[in-house]
Amino acid sequence: MNKDIRVPMREAWQMNLRALGVFAKRCPAVLVSITLSALFAALTPYVTIFFSARLIGELAGGRDARLLGRWALLTLLTTAAVSLISAALQRWKNNMMILAECAHDQLIMEKQMSLDFVDADSQYVADLYSQIEQNAWFSGFGFMKVLYLFHDFITACFSVIGGVGLCVTLFTSAVPDSASPLAFLGHPLFAVAAVAAMVLAALGSAKCSGECNKYWGLYAPMARLGNRLCTYFLFNLPQERHRALDQRIYEQQRNVGTPRLKQDISFGPGSWVAQKAKGPMGLWAVLASDISVLVEGAVYLFVCLKACAGAFGVGEVTQYIGAATKLFTGISSMLYALEQSRSNGEFMRVQFEYLDIPNRMYQGSLTTEKRADRQYEVEFRDVSFRYPGTDAWALRHVNMKFKVGRRLAVVGKNGSGKTTFIKLLCRLYDPTEGEILLNGINIRKYRYDDYMGVFSVVFQDFRLLALELGQNVAGRREYDDSDVRTCLEKAGFGARLSEMPKGLSTMLYKDIDLEGVEVSGGEAQKIAIARALYKNAPFIILDEPTAALDPIAEAEIYAKFDEIADDRTAIYISHRLSSCKFCDEIAVFDSGAIVQQGTHDALLTEETGLYAALWNAQAQYYT
């Protein structure tokens, strides 16, 4: 388990540079603000060191009151100016970091929405997305970590530049001949050796820190699991209103959530990372700190010995000790940032694996014909389909045709392939075998976004947004009030609309607006049907359209059936076979195949058929 899983340094830097390129494109000001903030953050200590050295030197030397006053005033003004500029730049950088995080979230959202549905619907992609979130939550590793490392690296670079500028004379200043026992301190080779020793010590300190950090990468899978458990049991469950009843009736939090959390030892004193912190992880961290302390002590010794030898005065002692210490810290920080970027590489791999998921579905090039008469014909020609990662066929050898203006019902037992049939029709998936034709042309040849515009769908697990009612129906901010009202009335929501305090501007739910209106499941379903009508597409597909409606509301929907569908092709997936009586044709699915097809009356005459069995199973409760 202690094996170093970090990516090679070269690959890590390639990913870091790529991430910086993304930020440079989406939020360029963040890199500018980080660079300027790092410059002043690194140089501010050197300003204090430089002027302090001048003051102390004058106090130890001539003690000219006028000169001391000038140095003091210059120190005050310069320090104040640099501090104010540094604070302003820090504030700017913090604001830009927030915008950069928003840009990152936007990037993830755009990727999620642009994925082929086959990928967006897969567990593998869902797990990648979850890993990105959990990595950021438990340790801050990932995309945003790149910006923090960039800040640390740039700050360290400026710190090294400032340290070199103030330390050059430390190594070049000559030692008087009178200090013969210490004369070697002024030899050029000794200066080279001192610098080399400082660099090697910085390398050693950074290496030790890197060995310590590698345990975070090893710990990541356990931390992600712990985060998932905590998020689910401590945050999601108590706050999800649709789970509130079950939680209270069955005391799920006390009987399930709390025991499961107690069982998990991802965090706390007994966790794996806590044990490593007491062992090798802690030892590496202590060793890195010890090296820094030893170097700082060596700097003090070297500067004081050279001052004793007469190479420079007491003022320069203050300058050289401060500058040399900062120089070593800068070198260590630079190397540490490099090591950190390598540790972050494993988490960046996950991020880019997600961002680099290709779009495999052919997008097509033909424009879907916008016919004024809406004369469309759809044909399934020997279509078979199986979901990725499984050998089981969800659909097998499906053949059927239907034209616009017809009413088609799709019925069957759970798992018979009804929803898969709709997903293929809408081209959320492509058939594994066979082809689907629209007006005689394979739907894969149509432009994907254009083809999707042909369909309005109310899925069984539809969702409304915590926005205005009108925006929910229209699916956009700007809409035609009259059309929205007409669609709501056709869907049976007219009476409820008249009771709403702000009409179409009434906010739904209380997620954003405390005065938002809660709607029942049946009301939400009517709004979803109105949304499908507002799109005014030639095909309208309703997946269990009346599942949440009471019998009266359901009867109203079916009574207005022709008015709602108008000249559209209406496809219904339903378990309530009473809805099938209104349809021109019924397709009965079983085990992924169409086993019966015809009108309601015709299918009932097939007494041994599946449709008759399903009808009679429901009818017995009403007769």
Structural class, from secondary structure content? alpha/beta
Strand arrangement across the biggest beta sheet: 6-7-8-3-9-10
Number of helices: 22
Q: Number of DSSP strands?
A: 10
Low-confidence stretches: none
Give the distance, in angstroms, between the N- and C-terminal Cα atoms: 67 Å
Helical amount? 55-70%
Radius of gyration, rounded? 36 Å
Q: Per the principal axes of the C-alpha atoms, what is the gross shape?
A: elongated
Mean pLDDT: 83
Report on the biggest sheet.
6 strands, mixed
What labels would you give this structure?
elongated; 6-stranded mixed sheet; 623 residues; 4-stranded antiparallel sheet; alpha/beta
Overview of the structural elements:
62% of the residues lie in helices and 9% in strands. It has a six-stranded mixed β-sheet with strand order 6-7-8-3-9-10, with helices on both faces. A four-stranded antiparallel β-sheet has the order 2-1-4-5, with helices on one face. A hairpin with a 2-residue loop joins strand 4 (433-438) and strand 5 (441-442). The chain is of the alpha/beta class.
